[in-house]
């Protein structure tokens, strides 16, 4: 037995009033505790392993974010193209409607002008006819 263990044994027997077997068990228990006191401490290697694991997870997370970013950008570009196509289709249809409206408006103006000419020509013929009748009488 080592001198420290003998001293602990004597103290356990004298001060704690333990018998020989209990004093030996007490010293053995303390010796075992002393041997295992560093078992639960964190070592540099353990921390390095944990940091490597965290770094790998962060890299995976970063890769997923980059993938999502690319996917979102692709969707935005697709939506932008779709919206631009829809806007150009609406502009084309609107242009066609305006051209049709202009055509109908010019046709209507021509029809109104034609009917106005016929009305005034008729009014003038009647007026000339009445004036000629009055002159002959």
**Domains, number:** 2
| Individual helix count | 3
How far apart are the termini? 168 Å
The number of strands is: 0
Specify the helix fraction band: over 70%
Task: Note down, in words, how this protein is organized.
By secondary structure, this protein is mostly helical. The chain has two domains: 1-41, no CATH class; 42-136. The chain has three helices and no strands. It has helices at residues 3-14, 20-35, 44-136. Helix 1 (3-14) packs across helix 2 (20-35). The longest helix has 93 residues, at 44-136. The N and C termini lie far apart (168 Å). The model has no long low-confidence stretch (mean pLDDT 88).
Question: Which key terms come to mind for this protein?
Answer:
137 residues, mainly alpha, 2 domains
In short:
This protein has 137 residues and is mainly α. The chain has 3 helices and no strands.
Question: Secondary structure elements and their pairing?
Answer:
Elements (H helix, E strand, L loop, with lengths): L2 H12 L5 H16 L8 H93 L1
């Amino acid at each position: 037995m080592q001198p420290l263990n003998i001293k602990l044994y004597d103290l356990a027997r004298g001060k704690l009033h333990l018998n020989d077997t209990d004093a030996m068990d007490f010293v053995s228990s303390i010796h075992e505790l002393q041997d295992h006191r560093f078992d639960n401490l964190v070592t540099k290697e353990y921390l390095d392993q944990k940091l490597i694991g965290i770094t790998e997870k962060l890299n995976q997370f970063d890769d997923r974010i980059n993938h999502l970013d690319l996917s979102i950008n692709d969707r935005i570009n697709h939506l932008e193209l779709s919206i631009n196509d829809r806007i150009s289709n609406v502009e084309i249809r609107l242009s066609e409607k305006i051209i049709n409206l202009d055509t109908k408006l010019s046709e209507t103006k021509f029809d109104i002008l034609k009917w106005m000419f016929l009305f005034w020509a008729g009014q003038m013929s009647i007026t000339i006819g009445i004036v000629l009748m009055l002159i002959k009488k």
